[in-house]
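User: Predict the complex.
Assistant: Input components as received:
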Amino acid sequence: MKRVKPANIRARLYVVAMMLALTSSALVVRAVDLQVVRKDFYQEQGDQRFLRDIPIAVSRGTIFDRNGEPLAVSTPVDSIWANPIDVLGAADRLPELAKALGLDEDDLKQKLVQRSDKEFVYLKRHLNPDDAKAILKLEIPGVASEREFRRYYPSGEVMAHVLGFTNIDDRGQEGLELAFDDWLAGKPGMKRVIRDLHGQVVENVELLREAQPGRDLTLSIDRRIQYLAYRELLAALQEHHATSGSMVILDAPTGEVLAMVNAPSFNPNSRNGADPSFRRNRAVTDVVEPGSTIKAFTISAALESGKWKPHSPIDTTPGTLTLADGRVIRDVHNKGMLDVTGVITHSSNVGAAKIGLTLTRDHMYDVDHRFGFGEVSGSGFPGESPGLLPIAKMWGPVEQATIAYGYGLNVTPLQLVNAYTAIANDGRLRSPTFVKGAQNPDTAVIDPEIAANIKRMLETVVTPEGSGLKAAITNYRVAGKTGTSRAASGGGYDNRHISLFVGMVPASKPRLVGVVVIHDPQGAYYGGLVSAPVFSKVMDGALRLLDVPPDNVKNWYTGSPQGGPTIDAKMPVSDDNVEMSNYAEGVPP
Amino acid sequence: MSLRVVAAMVILLGAVIASAIGVVYSIQESRELFVELTRLNTERDEFNFEFGRLQLEQATWAENNRIEQIARGRLGLVSPNPADTVVVRR
């Protein structure tokens, strides 16, 4: 066979070369297209297949009491969620899922259909991790779980008002949970990771946002005293068929809140059911007219003016005083000639009003204002009320006389106890605090000499002659003041009463200052009969718990069963004394 | 190309391959360690949660109301009467 030499071999070679060149340039173009022009798109698609941004969950900080007992703890729970489309796609498994969740099948289906335009719907939140695992084990398509945290309050209703509570997303809603929300909550982080084909994270690529775990908080509250106060307050409300009450105890030297209770209370562990009015921390949000408890400050102003000395005489005959507008101030009994101390001891309204009228209104306003009335106490508690102290310009002689014995101004129980703490601390006022060791700076509001005089006068209240004998604590000296006021409503006063007692122990060197406010007691309503016994019982326990040395023991090394002739709330009271302890402290006619 | 250049190329090639294998090995190792680290972190978190739960349980058992009921009811304890109290000053 003759080999035929192709006629145009060059042309053929040329064609082949051209084809190769075209192909390779096509490849280059494609490569450039992929690597350069559409790089972002493909990079993203590639990353999506193995890079994941996953959140770093943080739990809310724990709240402890001053002795390290947990008061609010977050524990992990699992929430079951679903992608509605996927679940509805496997509709035959719906009954199984509904049963596992403990939900009605029709309700579940309706919920899923309603939200089928979404990709995420919670089926059940806050399940015990073991229960959640059981549901996930069914391997129903589109069902998954998410880790969340739920807050538990082991002390329940005893601490409810102070702590407040969180919502289902673990954010503070009320109380200290709200006040310290940023501190407690922390910030969830975010990290980018590489996952292998089993879904396991094999590498941290970068930390997108650093996780900041919630910080713990140690409160100044003592759980034991808190419980004691709650128990006694509740018992007193039942005994006197009263509607509500509050008690606050401050640590005198530091201004730390050791206990703050309100009744009725609610269970912070359950989110439904509680009457919203039960959730108010009445001790800081509600105001009362202080009644006779204000007399300590009226007398402070009187001593400061220099016009009065503790034993200056004052005539309260005939036990009534007619004001300029025709209103009559009454004492329950005509006490005749008293001295300034006696006005406090016997809680004479006429005496306090007469003394008040000798002072200038600016001076009286100034003293009340210096003791913190009309201003928020600075405790930082959310929703704290500033109370109401009318400015001096608004005071006529009638107002001046009524304010002198505790009407026409409003205070919160916290303000009242804080003002008495200033007397306990030699006239230095300090904002109270809820955090252990976070002592606020103090300022001098009255001369230490005057504070000491007032303290001595307040001690005479808790004697058989005074109105507050039932506040007495065996082996301790108690200084305090009873108060009774009428509940204001609709611009007038109705027949409901507020019983108050505020006092400090041990009187020689006050460690604890406390206030008891009881609303609407039935039957006996005087502060000395309703609130003073609560003060005595709670403080007796608190002094023992805190190991405060007694300052009124007659027989130190006593081996005899009787500790000596100390003042005791359980002392037999003569008829005359009953009459005296029935004193109306500042109840307007 | 002289023999020396060829030898150098071979050595470099060997070094490149060795270092490539080394990189692969160390990445693999780091991933294994990372998985271990993640597991240990999770374990630590679980222990922390467990601790929280136990604290909660302890606080619930030690609730003052419960203690008081047991002390007064079942054990018949009473708080000491002031008359029975002796104060010793040191």
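The CA atoms of residues 25 and 40 of chain B lie 23 Å apart.
Let me know if you want any component modeled separately.
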